[in-house]
Amino acid sequence: MVTNLSKANVVMMKKLLVFTLIMFVFGYALVPFYEKFCEVTGINNLLKPDVLVKENWVDEKRWITVEFDANTRGLPWQFKPLQTSARIHPGEAISVMYEITNDSDREINGQAIPSYSPRFLDKHLKKFECFCFTKQVLKPYETRQMPVQFVIEPGLPPEINTVTISYTFFELPGSGSVATK
Amino acid sequence: MAAVHGDVHGHEHDDHHPSGIMRWVKTTNHKDIGTMYLWFSFTMFMVGGFLAMGIRAELYQPGIQILQPELFNQFTTLHGLIMVFGAIMPAFVGFANWQVPMMIGAPDMAFARMNNWSFWLLPVAATLLVGSFFVPGGAAAGGWTFYPPLSTQGGLGVDLMIFSVHILGASSIMGSINIITTILNMRAPGMTMMKMPMFVWTWLITAYLLVLVMPVLAGVVTMLLTDRHFGTSFFNAAGGGDPVLFQHIFWFFGHPEVYIMILPAFGIVSEIIPTFSRKPLFGYSSMVYATASIAILSCIVWAHHMFTAGMPTVGQLFFMYATMLIAVPTGVKVFNWTATMWRGSMTFETPMLFAIGFIFLFVIGGFSGVICAIVPIDIQVQDTYYVIAHFHYVLVSGALFALFAGVYYWIPKWTGHMYSETLGKWHFWLSMFFFNATFFVQHFLGLAGMPRRIPDYNLQFADFNMISSLGAFGFGLTQLLFLYLVIDCIRNGEKAPQSPWDGATTLEWTHLPSPAPYHSFETPPIVK
Known about the structure:
The structure holds 2 protein chains of 2 kinds.
Chain A: H1 2-41, E1 64-73, E2 77-81, E3 85-88, E4 93-102, E5 108-117, E6 125-129, E7 136-138, E8 143-152, E9 162-171
Parallel strand pairs in A: 1-9
Antiparallel strand pairs in A: 1-3, 2-4, 4-8, 5-7, 5-9, 6-8
Chain B: H1 2-7, H2 21-26, H3 30-58, H4 69-104, H5 112-131, H6 150-153, H7 156-185, H8 198-229, H9 243-260, H10 263-277, H11 284-298, H12 313-325, H13 327-341, H14 350-373, H15 375-381, H16 385-415, H17 421-447, H18 462-492, H19 507-511
């Protein structure tokens, strides 16, 4: 009787341990599931080009100041926009150049991540071209100029006069040797 | 596996149990382990309470007086982690250890050696957590929810916290496996599932929730760890990860976690209310189904913690309605407790006072929860003191009051002594007064926009903060009275009869003397 009971207990424990393991794996499975979910529903598309809406119109009565900001985090690059701001009409397409320079003697892969102020600007900002869509590989001491092409849609709330578009370059794994970190 | 095998009945052979400290280190007895769990959680309650006193002292007046902002952030973070993982959860496991075997007529827990191990992991985890204050850079300071990027950037303190959470998770999982197996396999003959006491039912469901979500927590902290040290990019936007992903996985654990901390409280209250109303529990089976529904619903509402993190409207609506749906089974429970008291011959000893206080204040916390579930309101009150008030109403006057109620209710069985009813009543009324003084005003602070986790505030918030701080100091001191009361009960309490409560019907009162013998129910009782 007692032996039967302890056998039953051990069987139960094994089942529960397997269940625990499954749930641990499930936690990791949430990662690709989340990515797929965002992709299918189009929630996370900061790094994908937008398509121009045909019936786009330009609101010529209104001016918006767009400020450009550039940062690097943890990689030896210089990164700056060639102009710090621009005044444009909503709906008007504009192209801005950014410049990056690799100050080190190794090849580095970098990825730029955009960030906007106000935060909901991403709903009204349509980017057709951006260096942030792909990773940038810079050879030692290479300098490169890259454009960003975008439109701010006239749907931007009227009380917003100034917006900021900021990019930060991060180093991607797989860069050349002589790690700085 | 062989070790576990033998231990199921192994304790019978070491009746000459070692004395002194080794008795506690090596014990496999469910009562000893339950006692250790309870003392451990009380100790952590004191540590977390000390941190709370520090927080309230700093917030007593506007400006920075006592704690520099960095240290203040460490205090709020560790207060949350210690109270959740060190105080509330182990206290309920302590109750399960003491009560589950006695209430189902089992001689001990199913895996006695593993039970010992799952307890002794806790002091290790607690040492890591508390010790992290003294490492360079200090303890984790990004909030108890340790969102990245703060938690991927912090120093050694964050690593210690991550290891600590790993260990606590392992301990909880082992504890749950033990509890599930004990309840499913070791009930006395005749005790069918639907004859189990409510406390046992709620713990069975809680234990299932724990094995469901604790591994997910372990997974998410492992991802944090590899992001920090091994070059992965789960939550690092630069490497293609997403910090919002962390919030989703964390709250997939985190929301069931809050029910893990309240379901056993429901169980304790469901034992106490019938005893002191001298009536059987009203709607027993609906209570069981309500508990199960709450547990299931708790797994599909996590994103209500993240309404401001960015979510499509459809998502917000789903999580809003799903969250509000939880109010239905919870309402069933409150209705059943009230109906149990209806026309009962009620007496108001301390356990009953705490149980009624629990219902009263938990309902307030439940209502503010429904308010927080409403998306447009939540966007207003997100990360304000309104949320602080809400979850302290469900965790302090919910979980903690139920724990106090349970201690008063069962301490005669545990120690064989009665506690001082006078001191118990003082403890209740002082706790009741100071708790509300501390937290009720925080609703107003939150609605007026005072943000949480900030050591300073605008002058307009000064008066309510002073009231709240005074209340907190009073609440903290009152708990020292509780400590004195428990020690006084153990040392000088009157001898307790087998059942000091004449409405009690569960096995530990009807079949076992007070104090409960070291080995009980070696031959199982027959339940009719």
